Amino acid sequence: MRIKSYSKINLSLRVINKLKNGMHNIETNSVLINLFDEIDININKKDIILFKGRFKNKINLKNNTIKDTLALLRKFNIIKKNYKIIIKKNIPAYAGLGGGTSNSASIVRYFLKNKLNAKLIKAFEQKIGSDFKLFLNNSSFQKNLRQVFKTQNNINYPLLIVFPNIDCKTKNVYQLVKNFSPQSGSFYLKRLHKNKFINAIKEDQNDLQKIAERKFLKIFQLIKLIKKQEGCIFSRMTGSGSACYGVFKSKKTAKFAMTKLKRKCPKYWCVVTKTI
User: Which of 37, 131, 204, 207 is catalytic?
Assistant: First the structure.
């Protein structure tokens, strides 16, 4: 059986405070996008996990989310057989696109047929990552670390995603957080008109972006470069980086911008895609 494991982008990200357990409390609007890893799952005599694709070399073969996911599924008696799982990695690693967490969430949803309860979600969040819930909805508003809501708000514009080949490890970026932002309240929980939502997101921010820009000049330069392209509504970094994106008025302008960017930065990986 082959399944798709979709990546995400953070349209906004505010760091609210730091909790006693060392975790950072965040608010974020996130959407799944049509960039995905491909996962083949088949019953086997023993567990075999294989990675292939462009970004396979950045995966830790001894310690990864697939192994952790299978272990948790067995702990809760959800699976009892062994499996051969092959993951084609199309999503860049350490990019803020959530590839590893998405792989876990996709496998869990496959075995549970999308029937996840709060106890299981909490267990997977603790083991896999606090962004696990963001992969259960196409569009989500995370009010804080504990509360994630499914929303109807989406940007519905073409996206240019660019990965500048910089590994931004989440833990390393959060360690540099010194300032916090106020919460937006219940504004994003409302069903907003497309233009009102896009304008609100455009005026919002990713608090981790400035940290990554100071650490890596290339990220700062890339976001400015994307913003300068014709038809770009706004540009931003996703998550803790280093992937950056531009929201464009049309697929034509997004593709034209990608062509120009490839000429200027031939070593960067980029793709034009959309939300799902």
Answer: 131
Secondary structure in 3-state letters for 177-201: CCCCCCCCCCHHHCCCCHHHHHHHH
CA–chain centroid gap for 185, Å, is 23
Residue 167: active-site member: no
Length of the chain measured in residues: 276
Which residue is catalytic, options 8, 88, 89, 143? 8
Pair type for strands 232-237 and 244-248: antiparallel
The pTM (predicted TM-score) of the whole model is 0.96
Report the 10 Å Cβ neighbour count for 227: 14
Classified as helix, coil or strand, 181 is: coil
pLDDT digits (tens, 9 = 90+) for 213-263: 999 999 999 999 999 999 999 999 999 999 999 999 999 999 999 999 999
Residues 6+ apart with CB under 8 A from 121: 132, 133, 136
Rg (CA), the chain: 18
Active site residue 131: yes
What is the spatial distance between Cα 58 and Cα 60, in angstroms, rounded to a whole number? Answer: 7
